[in-house]
Amino acid sequence: MLISKIMSLINTKKEIQEKSILIEIYGLGYVGFPLTVRLATANFKVIGIDLNEERITRLKNNELMDSEIHLEDEYRKCRQQKNIELQTKPMKSLIPKIGIICVPTPIPNENIKSDVFVKSAVESFLENAKTGDVIILESSVEVGTTEKIEKVIESKGYKVGKDFGLCICPERIDPANKEWGIENIPRVIYCSDELSFEISKKIYQHINKGNLLKVDSPKIAEVVKSFENTFRLVNISLVNELAMLCDKLKINVKDVIDAAATKPFGFMPHYPGAGAGGHCIPKDPRFLLESAKKFQTNFVTIENALKINLQMPNYIANSVEKSLSQKGFEKSVIICGLSYKSNVEDMRDSASFKIISDLKKKDFKVFGYDPYFSDESIEKYLIENNLNELNFEKIENLNNEKLKGISCLCIVQHHDIVKERISEIYRQGIIPLIYDCQHKISKESNSKSILEFLGE
């Protein structure tokens, strides 16, 4: 009996070589969708599973978001070849199955646990699972989650590491990064057994050429992912606190950072902004914080970094108000760049929405502009930013007519597709005050617009 169970994983490994397996990817967002396309392009049969029926319908109609459009040709080809199927639930299969979990993980509170979606996806996979199948977790999870998932699997009668594989390979993806993408980013992985590692290597050979660093414990893999984003959060908060000090010192924080970056060792430049948003950086460090609390201790560095990050939108709103007041301008502003980072349409936990809320409390007339802002997704934006309603007037473009009577253009995120227009607005002095949160506009002495920076 034991031998037959071990043979089932051996058989899975053999069938991967022939592409005679089924891969189910749970969650078709920023991680799951490119993963689906890449594996389907390698001639695997891939089932993309997402509970969001609107997303499934959109993808079935070949309607891709801006962040997905670079994959359109490959995606359409895979759909024509029937290498990609789209469903809201998994299917039964007699051939070996690999389940890759790419669902979101919420910040835990009294109403929700961080593993709620991961656990649900795993249980969905297990409904039609069999010996020889393998689950790979790509979702960022709280420490100890993988061990909990192992218990869920074994509650169904399987023995993890003997007749069923379990791995955690936390996603590493940076949307809009032109240098580092899914195909060349090294990955960290923990596997329950050597066969599951070999199976994973054969799969990731088609994702990032199998560049996997194997670690000895699921907790190591979990902490690695949280620590990577903690590093980002702490350094972003550090440089933002420096920017606030430079405002008081009346020196330019970018000049300080650029000069410090000439040191060839022991320094990595980070630049100021309105605060870290998105799905990962504000959330993953909290997993380490929760782990620390379980041992009745604090992770003070993370606590302080989170506090600084939370206060940045209010600091920017106050800076804009102060500057307009000193110059006698009316309290009207366009917040430009509503996404959480440049060149993406992702607006989850965006600093822009927080700045808008703070300015509205100060009786500002607030407009919002982002070339990636979609009317069809307004409800999604509201949910992602904990808002009940859109509390600003959305404008469609930055033409001269729209800018009439506006005192300030506050640029929170610079998108490449409007870079030239923003430069033109500044050069021609079309708007009285431009407040640049990211230090990306070069000052020109002949412009009639006043240009100010976060960390002047």
UniProtKB/TrEMBL annotation:
Keywords: Membrane, NAD, Oxidoreductase, Transmembrane, Transmembrane helix. Its EC number is 1.1.1.336. Gene3D superfamilies: NAD(P)-binding Rossmann-like Domain (3.40.50.720). InterPro entries: 6-PGluconate_DH-like_C_sf (IPR008927), NAD(P)-bd_dom_sf (IPR036291), UDP-Glc/GDP-Man (IPR017476), UDP-Glc/GDP-Man_DH_C (IPR014027), UDP-Glc/GDP-Man_DH_C_sf (IPR036220), UDP-Glc/GDP-Man_DH_dimer (IPR014026), UDP-Glc/GDP-Man_DH_N (IPR001732), UDP_ManNAc/GlcNAc_DH (IPR028359). The chain crosses the membrane at residues 21-40. Pfam families: UDPG_MGDP_dh, UDPG_MGDP_dh_C, UDPG_MGDP_dh_N. GO terms for biological process: polysaccharide biosynthetic process. It catalyses: UDP-N-acetyl-alpha-D-mannosamine + 2 NAD(+) + H2O = UDP-N-acetyl-alpha-D-mannosaminouronate + 2 NADH + 3 H(+). GO terms for molecular function: NAD binding; oxidoreductase activity, acting on the CH-CH group of donors, NAD or NADP as acceptor; UDP-N-acetyl-D-mannosamine dehydrogenase activity. SMART domains: UDPG_MGDP_dh_C. Residues 334-437 form the UDP-glucose/GDP-mannose dehydrogenase C-terminal domain. Coiled coil: none annotated. It is an enzyme of class 1 (oxidoreductase). Belongs to the UDP-glucose/GDP-mannose dehydrogenase family. This is UDP-N-acetyl-D-mannosamine dehydrogenase.
